[in-house]
Amino acid sequence: MHITSVVLLLLLVTAVSGPVARLLRVPLPLLLITCGVVASLLGLHIEFEPETFLLLFIPPLLFSDAYLMPLRDFRELRWPILLLAVGLVIFSTLVGGYFIHWLLPVVPLAAAFALAAILSPTDPVAVGGMIDADNVPRRFLHILHGEALLNDASGLVCFKFAVAAAITGTFSVLNASVGFVLVSVGGIVVGIVLTFGFNFVNRILSRHGFDEPTTQITLMTLLPFAAYLLAEHMELSGILAAVSAGLSLNQSRVFGAAQTATRLRGSAVWEMITFVFNGLVFLLLGLQLPDIAKQGIYMANKAGDSTWSLISTIVLLTCVLLLLRLVWIFLLGGGRELIAKARGHKPVPVPFMETAAMTIGGVRGAVTLAGILSLPIAQDGMPEFPMRDLLVTFAAGVIITSLLLAAVLLPALSRSLRHDGGDPVNREADEVRRLLALEVIAEMERQSALVTKQLDETAAQQRAEVTAALIAEYRFRLRLLEDTQDEKRHDEDTSTTHDAAHRETALARRRFEAALRLHLLRTERKALTRMRHEGLVSDETERLLTHDLDLEETVLSGSARALPRHLDYKDEPRLSSPLLYTG
Question: Cβ contacts of residue 238 below 8 Å, gap of 6+?
């Protein structure tokens, strides 16, 4: 089958799998993996190149997660996230490596460390398909996603050092520690520097009128690939570079001042990229599994072990990794309680069900598979990595076992988690909408006092009527948000006339209303930005409300452009702040 047909077929399966997963009520990652396995058994084979896979799929997915990461929550949870993303990776690599070497003496210690290191990163995409995000604590989700953003980099760095030790036969704890810090910090710096360069170029293009959405979105799409490639070329962490680029772009809010069309189209583009790439990752994983399983069973049988012995070893290895994760989470909880007592605060114990869900949520996924398949093979006089095929089999087996355990246990565990009820983002958004409505009412009252002084009596009356109607509308919104059902709003019927003068008056009124509404939307944007800088609004709430304002502005701009343009507004007084006039 031609490669073009294969790609189109994979895209079709990815698109159809979403509705099918909801219909069958099965986790989407498992369904996609199953589709990949079936396709492989039917004869579809795709050459899997780990380096190409890491370059094509991992940077944009991690960049997107980092860009959408709620920074306020990330800062509040930075220590649990860092201790899980770095501390747990090192802990799992050391303890897990010694356990693998003890369980399988034929595997050299350095190779065992390499396997333990590549098994340490978790996959947030797989977990996201098994949890109802609306019914679990936000803190739980943010810790899982934040951990997965960073532990990919720390796990791959540990993996590379272990692979180098296995090939060269030498290992230095001091050199590995210094190298770990340099590679990690260097990758972060590369991502930040590239983001600042992107922001600088974007401002220059916008200042000279080259701010069309297609240009900005294309540059943003290339940013994670540029960060990854540059960092890898400098022998630094490309994954951390992509993550830091996403976090830096999120922090800089470069698109906060962009065109409405840029934000709306950019959001749609990245949603599509994330959906397609996530689906393809699990499809490719399923396509590789039959060949990996055959090779692993062949290796086990050749060594005198049965297939069931191989499966038992994989299950045992998965359980040990989950046990290490559980122990580390308990240690974090105990340390948190001790710190709270030392500060004189009442410790808040973490519920056991949340600890269990956090443990089962450590699902292995695409990065683990890509990393283990990147182990050197025998070619051009280079020896093969020790026990490579066996390590690949174990890694693939742990991925599938952890996915199956999460699919069975995680939905039940997540339903038992303590939740305050309702969506906290929506609750915060309603409160912010109330504050924005108050800001808009105050702005309209101020503008009414300033503008009507510059107009004749008829125009002043028209604008006073429009302003009063809008004030009444926003007060009605306030009553809805405050859950008071005092009165119903009655729309006043405006009699129409066929007289030309009256028609022009009506058009002028509609145009002014559209312009005033656009101005008020900008007032809401400024107030929303101020609230975010003051820490009163989370990133998720701001993004939700900004999207609502963008949609409303798009509708208003289209309505204003649709009005006839035969009226002359050159001498008409402007509002005191920047306002889009379409006349």
Answer: 54, 59, 187, 227, 228, 229, 231, 232
> 52 CB contacts (<8 Å, ≥6 apart)?
none
The two tokens of residue 123 are 């996959």
8 φ, ψ (degrees, to nearest 5): -65, -40
CA 463, CA 505: separation in Å to the nearest integer?
Answer: 11
Q: Are 116 and 100 in contact (CB under 8 A)?
A: yes
**What are the structural domain ranges in the chain?**
3-415, 424-483+500-562
| pLDDT score of 91 more than 80 | yes
Residue 375 and residue 383: Cα distance in Å, rounded? 11
Write out the two tokens for 5: 């047909």
- Give the model confidence (pLDDT) of 165-174 as tens digits: 888 777 676 7
What's the pLDDT at 229?
94
First to last CA, the chain: 57
Cβ-contact 183, 155 below 8 angstroms: no
CATH of 3-415, one of 1.20.1530.20, 1.10.20.10, 3.30.300.30, 3.90.650.10: 1.20.1530.20
Q: Among 180, 276, 266, 183, which residue's Cα sits nearest to residue 223?
A: 266
Q: Report whether 353 contacts 413 (CB < 8 A).
A: yes
Phi then psi dihedrals of residue 261, to 5 deg? -60, -35
In angstroms, rounded to a whole number, what is the distance separating the alpha carbons of residues 307 and 146? 37
Looking at the chain, the whole-number percentage of residues with pLDDT higher than 90 is 13
Closest to 92 in 3D by CA, of 55, 147, 142: 147
- Is the pLDDT score of 191 beyond 90? yes
CA distance 140 to 393: 31
The pLDDT tens digits for 398-454 are 998 998 898 888 888 877 776 555 566 667 777 777 777 777 777 777 766 665 555
Could you tell me if 298 and 332 are in contact, meaning their C-beta atoms sit under 8 angstroms apart? no
Of the ranges 17-31, 60-74, 309-323, 474-488, which is most confident? 309-323
CA distance 455 to 467: 14
With 70 as the cut, is the pLDDT of residue 132 above it? no
Question: In sequence order, what are the residues at sequence separation of 6 or more whose Cβ sits closer than 8 angstroms to the Cβ of residue 252?
Answer: 195, 196, 199
Determine the Cα–Cα distance for residues 6 and 46; give it in Å rounded to an integer: 9
Mean pLDDT, rounded, of the chain: 77
Q: For residue 562, name the pLDDT band (cuts at 50, 70, 90).
A: very low
Calculate the alpha carbon distances from 157 to 86, 135, 152, 371, 374 in Å.
11, 35, 9, 11, 13
